[in-house]
Design a protein that fits this description.
The chain is α+β, with helices and mostly antiparallel strands. The longest helix has 24 residues. It contains 4 helices and 11 strands. It has one domain. Helices cover 26% and strands 41% of the residues.
Length: 180
Amino acid sequence: MRGLRGISIALVSALLLALSAPLSAHRGQDALTVVEIDDARGEVVATHHFAAHDIEPLLPRLAPGAEASLDDPMAQAALTAHLARHFTLSTGDGEIALTLDALRLRGDDVRVVYRGRFPRAATALDLQSTLGADLTAGSSHQVNVRRNGVTRTLVFEGADDAGTVAFAPLTGKATGAAGR
């Protein structure tokens, strides 16, 4: 009987461990932003992708008077204001004014889209990002910058808040990435 009890305890322990692994696998508030440069239109579009289950627990700190739900317009406004403060783009001509274009909620998928004017002659794009770093430790923010079919990736973690993507003059073809 003692052997059967030991096996049962071991099986239950193994089952609990197996069930807890997926729960601990996604601990950080990671974000993905895709920055697309359209030289023909002279436009840049920055689309932030989040999981609602990562963002909603942060809402009480972003919008203390709002519901902790992205269904609340006050929470949405606080989130978009936070993004505008903590993610900026600039070129040698100065900071690019990004305007909120859309906030899309579909299930657990949250997309926030900003648009701005982009100077075609720009040879580099400077990025500043502290998304989430002021709210949660261990967050990471991946930014993919696309121009003329070429994608460059920067990753921001914690205090890493600046990066530059360089492009060939006038052709718009990316030549490399520097900084982090």
